[in-house]
Design goal:
Blueprint (H helix, E strand, L loop, with lengths): L5 E2 L6 E5 L4 E7 L2 E5 L3 H9 L15 E2 L2 E2 L2
Antiparallel strand pairs: 1-2, 2-3, 3-4, 5-6
Length: 71
């Protein structure tokens, strides 16, 4: 929330941040975090802003998460 993300009122696992030219979506479910955007720079810069207290393991690009195929 401190990085200007707004919680989605329909699904409390979804956080969205809108900028002038783009938007980025973060999906949190238990110990899984999925960052969605078609701009690699946006993803990388937002990952760097995550607090260091989180134990993170970057799995880079994925096409399946929680049994759901992403295209």
């Amino acid at each position: 929330m401190s990085n200007e993300f707004k919680i989605n009122e329909v699904d409390k696992h979804v956080y969205v941040k809108h900028t002038d030219k783009d938007h980025i979506i973060i999906y949190l479910y238990m110990d899984v975090m999925l960052i969605l955007n078609d701009n690699d720079y946006m993803i990388i810069s937002n990952k760097k802003k995550l607090p260091s207290k989180f134990n993170k393991k970057d799995l880079t690009v994925t096409d399946i998460i929680l049994g759901i195929k992403i295209t």
